[in-house]
Structure formats: C-alpha cells, structure tokens
Amino acid sequence: MRRQDPRPWICVGLLAFVLVYVGCKSETDPPRLKEPAAAGVQPLTEHPAAPVDSNKLFANFGTPAGVLIISGERNGYLEPCGCSEDQSGGLIRLYDMVDRLKQQKWPVALIDLGGLVKNPTAARGGFEQTKIKLDYAIRALALLKYSGLALGVEDLKVGVGEALGLFLNSLGDQSRIVVANVGPLETYQSVFAKSVTTAIGPVKLGITAIIDPALLEGLADPDREALLPKVTRPEDVLPGVLADLESRSDYQILMVQGPPELAKRMATAYPGFDIVVSTSEFPEPLSSEPELLNGGKTRLITVGHKGRNVGVLGFYSDPSNPPKFQLQILNKRFDGPGTATNAMKKLIQDEYRETLKAAGVVENMLRHELATAPSGSRFVGAETCKTCHPRTYENWLETGHASAFETLLGDKKPNTQYDAECVSCHTTGFEINSGWISAEKTPHLEGNQCENCHGPASRHIAEPDNKEFLKAMHLTADRADKNRQCIQCHDEENSREFEFTRYWKKVVHNGLDNYKDPRVHQPLARAKPAPEPSRPKEPLAAPGGGR
C-alpha cells in the first residue's frame, strides 16, 4: 500500500490553528466598533505606505506633520465606570495615547466638543459629586493642554456661575472655551475666545465653535442672562469668524453644540470649514468614518459618548496630501506601563477621590423616602432578616451581592468606597432615609442586601403577619423586570452580558424557609436605627438614577 503524503494535512492543521487563534483573539475586543485597520475618508494610497510597526500608533498615517485629537460628550466618565473588564474610554488612556504620540515625535493638539458632565440632578453620584467631577474634568483638559473646549449646556447645569468659576480657576493658561456666538460677563472673558489657532508642526489649525441659542434659553438658571449676556444666532457671527480663520490658518474647524441637524446645516451653509464636529445621536458613532459634505471638502465627525472613542486627524506638510482620519477606541491597548503612575492617574483617581472623601459626598448625599415602602419603614440589615429567613440568608451569602462592599475595598482604584457612583450599587438603601451612610455609621448595611430588592423591613419585622407590609415587600420576577430594578446596577458598564431571566435564576429563593415555627410570627426587636443626617430631605419616587 502506497504511503500517503502527510504534507496537505499538515497545511490544513496549520490553517485551522491560525483561524482558531484569530477567532479567540477577536473575542478580547469590546463588542463595539472594532478598531479600523486603515480608517479614513481618503484611500490609503494617498499616503506612502509605512513599514508595519506593532508598537507605533497610527502606523498607516505615515509621517504626518502632526495630529489633532477630537473628544467630546464625556458625560461624566473620567474613566471607565463599572465592573466589566473590557470597558473602553478614560482620560488615563487618552493621556497614555498622547504621551506615546509625543514619543513618536508627532506634534499633538486637542479639542473637545464639551459635555464633560451630564444632568447633575439625576446623576448617580449626586449633584455635589458632579460639580467636583466637572472641576477635575476641566483640570484634566488643562493637563493635556487642550487648545479649545466648546461650551456645553450640560456643563452649565451645575449652575452657570459655578461652572464659569471652575473654568476660570481650573482651565489653565493654554486652554480656552471657544464659542463664537456667546459673550460672557467681563469677569470671565479671559477664558473665552471666539476662535483660536494652534500649530502642529508647520500646519496651522483655526478652531471655532457655536452653541444652539435654544439650549441656553432652555437653561433654568436665573444667572444665565447676567453671566452670559450676549447670545446671538450662529449665522450672525460665523461668516466673519470663518473669514478671519481662513486668513491665518491652513484648515478651519467648527464644533457645534446642538442637535446633529444643526451641525449638518452649518457645515452645508459654510463650506469653508474643512472639519465640522457634531454631537452624537447615539452612544457609538454609526460609522468609523466621517460623513463627507460639500462635494467631499467638509468632513462631519462624531465621536460618540462617554469618552470611549476619540477622533484622530493626521495633517501633512504637503498640501496635496489630505488629512487622514481614524476613529480610535480607547481600549486596553492604551493601558501602557506608564499609566500606573502618570500625572493623569494621579489627578483623576488619587486626587479626585481624596476630594470626594474630604467633601463627604457619600455621607452628605441628599436622601429621600422610598415611595413604594410603608410610611415610616426603616432599613434593618440582613442579619435581622436571618432570624426568620435563615436558609434564604445562607443562599444570599453565596451570591456576589453579599460581598459587594468588599469588592470596593479591594478595588485597584483607590478610595472607591467614598465615590457615590460606586457606593450606590455596593451598599443597601443608598440615597434613602435610614439607608447607607458610611462604614462607621451603618456597617449593618454593607453589601447589596435583601432590602435593596424588598424594601426597608422595620414595619414587617414589627408585624410579621401584616398583609399590607408583606405585600409591599413581595417581589416577583415580573415586577422586578418591569420596574428595571436590577438594571439600575446591572447596566452596560457593570454587567455587559446581563440578561434578566438568566440572572434572576441565580438569586431567586422561593420556598427555602419553613414558617411553621410560631416564633417567626412574633414581632422582633427593632434594630437600632442609624442616626439621621441633618440635611434637607427631598421626596422622590424611587432610589438611584442614571449618570
């Protein structure tokens, strides 16, 4: 019998190995936009091919004169916020990217569309933490030496006077709020500019921005008109600003704070702008490439929300080489060795959370009654529940909910137990009267306990057979799902793979305990209540809230 040649099978085996390896490798990427290999509105042949260097950023850019980095709509995300390992974004990663570009000897400039924070009255961390966060976001932009920051109405919602004061004190000497159609009170004019120019190598960039006047008019702040007295239509100022920029820069850039339709209309009306930066309708851009307008002359760019992506434009000394664009995901590629000690990490992890701790944002959180609980109900803690529900208690101990507070203490990020955004999902009764205050004052409420789902139990333990109190604490799968009770914490940042039906099976505990013993129907001594903070209380419908 003739011996079979093994070489074809060896080739097949090698091919299968490569396919399996590539497939496994792709699973490590976040399930968002994949990093484009050669994204850009111009064909790659427009730029001479550069030798592939796995350590070089934007290798397909060749050797640009410099790069412009565009960020915006950070929405309060100074860093990836949550427990999922594969999150993207964060200022520490952006700092790493900028630092590595500078090591490549590429000049770098940065601009931001605004929206550093979002809706402070409904933010998970509360109003006071949002103000502190805005301050540190502004400091971060100053540390990175941003050339221009567009004026975002969300940033003004901490209070127009408060926001302008933070810009004045924290923005630094090299950065400016750029807005062509708004004039501030004289006190703040030193940090405002109708336009700015910046050079990256021999290339000069002219930058301006506008804000939709309707957004400012809808701002419920009595100080707005006094502190920002001059608000005009973009059409009244852009022709003059554009003409001025064209006379002293090679490329003209417009940032538009307003609906995406406004950005598109401005881009079409003023084709002199080479780059127009728009707000994003969706958290992620629908395309990794800009939309081309005005016969391809103008590029309309969006970067999405939460600081996950930045736009990067490479500019060239040769005018015949058009700028090259790439939408860059700030993923683990930018967890370089320097990120553990760089200046940005020190600012937005160490200093920021030390400030939260010193300000007592968790302890001083504005609290309210829980509308769905019987009047006068207070939190008693899972140890009290254990008296009549021992097997249910033991079942809870086996879940991640029981150790939720310990995970904060063991977090590689410092002082997360003083961060209200973290504490809200790792303690019991946060933001509710008699709920979590601190490890010193309310240690019996550490972790995500029974009462986060069932409500405060003091009335129930005082009258175990009271049907009204039993009904208030009864939680069905249908009710939990419809009220989005779990998704408040098991959101995209914390449970990327969360699916209610599958997760519910891990915590459901029907029928674990026997209530025939008459002692479980007797009133329990009420647990010692935690001291009430001496703060004004505001009745709200439910705990928690979005960022």
What would you say this structure looks like, in words?
With 547 residues, the protein is an alpha/beta fold. It folds into two domains: 296 residues, Purple Acid Phosphatase, chain A, domain 2; 156 residues, Flavocytochrome C3, Chain A (Flavocytochrome C3, Chain A, domain 2). It contains 19 helices and 15 strands. It has a seven-stranded mixed beta sheet, covered by helices on one side. α3 packs antiparallel against α10.
In short, what is this structure?
The chain has 19 helices and 15 strands. Helix 3 packs parallel to helix 5.
Radius of gyration: 27 Å
Supply the CATH architecture of the largest domain.
Answer: 4-Layer Sandwich
| Number of structural units classed as domains | 2
Total of DSSP H or I helical runs spanning 4+ residues = 19
Q: Major sheet: order of its strands?
A: 6-4-3-2-1-14-15
Architecture blueprint of SSEs:
Blueprint lengths: L6 H20 L39 E6 L19 H13 L4 E5 L13 H18 L4 E3 L2 H4 L3 H11 L5 E3 L3 E2 L8 E2 L1 E6 L2 E9 L1 H5 L6 H4 L2 E2 L2 H15 L2 E7 L2 H10 L5 E4 L12 E3 L4 E4 L7 E7 L8 E6 L13 H17 L22 H4 L4 H8 L6 H6 L10 H4 L26 H5 L3 H5 L4 H7 L3 H6 L17 H8 L40
Parallel strand pairs: 1-2, 2-3, 3-4, 4-6, 8-10, 10-11, 11-13
Antiparallel strand pairs: 1-14, 5-9, 7-8, 12-13, 14-15
Helix pairs in contact: 3-5, 3-10
What are the defining features of this structure?
547 residues; alpha/beta; Purple Acid Phosphatase, chain A, domain 2; 2 domains; 7-stranded mixed β-sheet; 19 helices; disordered N terminus
